[in-house]
């Protein structure tokens, strides 16, 4: 029998593995360029590299690891499946485990109103399926998406994503995607800001859909994140989101909420759209729903379930291990009230970061909900724009990320020009780990400022 090549610590350096990765893997690698380590093991909020260094992980698999690394309940779920003799792969055939997971996941939605669709395992698979469903249901072909939105990197999902860097390289993306401005508390796209900016954008959306001279034919769907993650942690204002729900309902447009990143207690509620008290027609779930393993699921309001049998298939829709770990994670989220933990820890972190913003002018804005926090890095030596925002400083933000890494704190950036440092830590993070994070982050900002501005 072959031994699996898991690596003991201190046999080779990070550099050794990174050089080999560089030689063997495509240029498309992204995270290793910013977080240059080779991981040997991980537990909870902590990751250990092959040299024995320990890092506080505030990236957590891009928000996937709600329960942190190797949570005992998740590990037990995997062991239970392995001991049971269940097949690991079942297409979309059912099993007692799938049945229980489906029931558990549906329990987070209004009783009897939604059905689930298991997709291919990535978030992009989920958004692709949701758009196809909306087109099938309405017979229409256009989609409205929002600036700053992120829905994945496949052709269709990239078409609905805001980031032009990724889009410019690939021609002939999905046609028929109309972008509209998304409210932003620090960088209002209308240059108005505050409540007046939100009111104007709310009015604009309704007017745009109802204006018979808008030039845009009625779309099949509106797709959005209630809190944009990759776009720089931007929260949809409640009244704007409620208006979008009202208008899409009135005009028979399918409203798709992409909860791939913000879902599953991260924002302080099970789903981020709950902050606005709305009910979407389709909810896209991935990342945390699989409890560390790949899984994507749509929740579809029953009346929108327009699929013909096999209208959308995919080989990997039956990952039993992911359903087991997802089931265990959902139970822990409920039993340990992780939504509340995310809210409380997030409030603490935001309060501390806002204090830091008083000390460091380069922190232009601290925002987010629960454990989805954005720290916008700016050049405060430059003039403010018409609504008081300083220009983005992506170079300093990158230096802060680098300094965080030196202080053994893993985190990622997002937003325009990568100038928003993001906190996406596991939801089980403790108060003392939060305090440690703030300590390391403060040192990193000091170091980065010294490196770039002195
Ligand atoms: C909101 C949102 N939607 C979709 C995706 C795409 O998910 P995946 O990378 O699993 O395809 C992401 C990934 O970060 C995301 O944040």
TrEMBL record:
It is an enzyme of class 2 (transferase). Keywords: Aminotransferase, Pyridoxal phosphate, Transferase. One of its GO terms (molecular function) is pyridoxal phosphate binding. Its cofactor is pyridoxal 5'-phosphate. The keyword Transferase applies. Gene3D superfamilies: Aspartate Aminotransferase, domain 1 (3.90.1150.10), Type I PLP-dependent aspartate aminotransferase-like (Major domain) (3.40.640.10). Its EC number is 2.6.1.76. Signal peptide: none annotated. Belongs to the class-III pyridoxal-phosphate-dependent aminotransferase family. This is Diaminobutyrate--2-oxoglutarate transaminase.
């Amino acid at each position: 029998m072959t031994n699996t090549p898991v690596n003991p610590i201190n046999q080779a350096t990070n550099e050794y593995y990174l050089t080999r990765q560089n030689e063997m893997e495509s240029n498309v690698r992204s995270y290793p360029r910013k977080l240059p380590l080779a991981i040997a093991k991980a537990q909870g909020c902590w990751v250990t590299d092959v040299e024995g260094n320990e890092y506080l992980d505030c990236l957590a698999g891009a928000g996937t690891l709600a329960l942190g690394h190797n949570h005992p309940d998740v590990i037990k779920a995997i062991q239970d499946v392995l001991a049971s003799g269940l097949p690991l792969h079942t297409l979309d055939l059912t099993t007692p485990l799938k049945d229980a997971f489906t029931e558990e996941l549906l329990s987070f939605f209004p009783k009897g109103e939604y059905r689930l669709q298991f997709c291919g395992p990535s978030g992009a698979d989920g958004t692709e399926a949701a758009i196809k469903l909306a087109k099938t249901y309405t017979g229409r072909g256009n989609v409205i998406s929002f600036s700053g939105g992120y829905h994945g990197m496949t052709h269709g999902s990239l078409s609905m994503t805001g980031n032009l860097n990724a889009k410019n390289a690939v021609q002939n993306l999905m046609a028929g995607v109309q972008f509209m401005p998304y409210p932003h508390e620090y960088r209002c796209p209308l240059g108005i800001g505050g409540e007046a900016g939100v009111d104007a954008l709310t009015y604009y959306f309704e007017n745009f859909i109802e204006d018979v001279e808008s030039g845009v034919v009625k779309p099949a769907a509106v797709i959005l994140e209630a809190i944009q993650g990759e776009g720089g942690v931007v929260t949809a204002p409640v009244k704007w989101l409620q208006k979008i729900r009202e208008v899409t309902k009135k005009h028979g447009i399918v409203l798709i909420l992409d909860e791939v990143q913000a879902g599953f207690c991260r924002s302080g509620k099970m789903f981020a759209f709950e902050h606005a008290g709305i009910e979407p027609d389709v909810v896209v779930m991935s990342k945390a729903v699989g409890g560390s393993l790949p899984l994507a699921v749509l929740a579809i309001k029953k009346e929108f379930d327009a699929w013909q049998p096999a209208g959308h298939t995919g080989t990997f829709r039956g990952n039993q291990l992911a359903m087991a770990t997802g089931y265990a994670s959902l139970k822990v989220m409920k039993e340990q009230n992780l939504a509340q933990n995310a809210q409380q820890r997030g409030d603490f972190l935001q309060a501390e970061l806002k204090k830091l913003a008083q000390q460091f002018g380069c922190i232009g804005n601290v925002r987010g909900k629960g454990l989805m926090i954005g720290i916008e890095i700016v050049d405060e030596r430059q003039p403010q724009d018409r609504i008081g925002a300083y220009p983005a400083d992506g170079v300093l933000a990158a230096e802060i990320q680098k300094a965080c890494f030196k202080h053994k704190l893993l985190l990622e950036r997002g937003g325009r020009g990568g100038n928003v440092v993001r906190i996406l830590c596991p939801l089980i993070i403790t108060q003392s780990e939060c305090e440690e994070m703030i300590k390391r982050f403060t040192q990193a900002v000091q170091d980065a400022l010294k490196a770039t501005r002195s």
